């Protein structure tokens, strides 16, 4: 099940997959300093985006109380 997409049409799952690709690129022995910095920046931007998407979902999550009323999820 895909999580809601952000404005740039990427799901949390897709972002995590791209982060994994960034990690693999950084682990290569022949990566240049410039390329490693670029991969790092892109990975951090993806992590920030994931955090924001997850935070937005958490704000919207509600549970149904025993009496049927809605309460904010804590």
Task: Give descriptors for this structure.
74 residues; mainly alpha; 2 strands
Number of strands: 2
Rg (CA only): 17 Å
Stretches with pLDDT under 50, minimum 5 residues: 1-7
Mean pLDDT: 82
Q: Describe the biggest sheet?
A: 2 strands, antiparallel
Number of domains: 1
Measured by DSSP, the beta-strand proportion falls in 5-15%
Helix fraction, binned, reads: 55-70%
Structural class: mainly alpha
H-E order: HHEE
| Biggest sheet: strand arrangement | 1-2
Count up the helices. Answer: 2
Overall, the morphology is rod-shaped
What is the straight-line distance between the termini?
23 Å
In words, what does this structure look like?
There is one protein chain. With 74 residues, this protein is mainly alpha-helical. The chain has one domain (12-72). Helices cover 58% and strands 8% of the residues. It has 2 helices and 2 strands; from the N terminus they run H-H-E-E. It has a two-stranded antiparallel sheet. A hairpin with a 5-residue loop joins strand 1 (62-64) and strand 2. Helix 1 runs antiparallel to helix 2. It starts with 11 loop residues before the first helix and ends with a strand.
Write the layout of secondary structure elements.
Blueprint lengths: L11 H15 L6 H28 L1 E3 L5 E3 L2
Antiparallel strand pairs: 1-2
Short description:
This protein has 74 residues and is mainly alpha-helical. 58% of the residues lie in helices and 8% in strands.
